[in-house]
Structure formats: structure tokens, C-alpha cells
Amino acid sequence: MAKALILIDFINEIVDKDGKLAGKGYSDFIVKNNVFGNLNKLISYARANDYFIIFVKVGFSKNYIEQPKNSPLFGKANDFQVLKLDTWATDFHKSLNVREDDVVIIKHRVSSFYNTNLDLILKTNYVDDVLVAGVATDLAVSSVVREGHDRDYNMVIVEDCCVAATYEDHVNSLKILGKLAQIKKIIDLN
After folding, report:
1. What are the structural domain ranges in the chain?
2. pLDDT tens across 111-137, in order?
């Protein structure tokens, strides 16, 4: 039985104070709650305990061919030139301990499972237990937990390594997701 850590959307465009989406509140939430410090503790814990480390990022090709044009969330990405792959915008934030041998998955929707090889990687490596950290608690984290639950993974949300636009969104999402996953803090993992 193997274990995995999935870290979702910790990319510059979303989490850096200079990212085009910084105004959404994610960068402020990260600073206020020491999320990068927590994330690196989580990554160190996962490496020490032989977890598969999987970084997931949302993004679109330069021509935005994969962009869902009717999406309230992504429909104007091309107009604002956000979330463009192979640019600083979709690089993982420099504060994170990302290694070359970590798995990187690119997604074009909120879901980390939709049209990606995430499930294949988890299944072929006999993963049962999945730790989740990500942006945003109410969007990408919620999506991966719901889908992971329905694919029979034991899902664990590391709440002090998740980010939302507001603390209220974060808390409300965790309350609902507690029906599908364990909710833990880093300190609870040891």
C-alpha cells in the first residue's frame, strides 16, 4: 500500500503577490497563515515517509486551445492572458521545495482527475492513501477530494496547507469535505 501527496495549483499567477490573480485573496491568505512554511514541512514529511509527490498545475497553451470558453472561472483567461503554460505565471512558486523527480501534472479544468493521468499514476503505483494540499479549498481541493473519494482512495486534507480566497470559504469547504475525507493539520500526521 503506497501513499501520495498531491499539491494543487501553487503557481505564481495564483499565489504570488505579483501574479495577475493576486487580487482574489490567495496570496494574502498564504502570508497570513504561513502556508508556504507549512507546505514545506508537509513536503519534507512526505519525502521522509516515501510518499509519491505530485504537483498539479492549471494552465493553457499559448493559443488557449484547451480553455473552456463558457466557464465562469476560465472563460476569460485568454482575454486577460492568464494561466499561460511555459511562462512564469504557471511555474510553481519559488518558496516550494519542488524536485526534478517529483511528478508534475498539467490540468485544464478545476479537477485534477479530468483528462489527466492522475488516476493512472495512483493506480499503477498502488496508492490507497492520498494527502491533499492546494488552492483553492473550495474549488480544486474540493474537486480532487470528491473524485478521489468516489474512486475509493482514502483522502486526507491537510487543512493548514490549503488556501482559499477568504477564511470563511476555507472553513465552510472543510466542514462539507469532512464528510468525504479526513481533515488533519500537519502536526496530526506524525
Report:
1. 2-189
2. 999 999 999 999 999 999 999 999 999
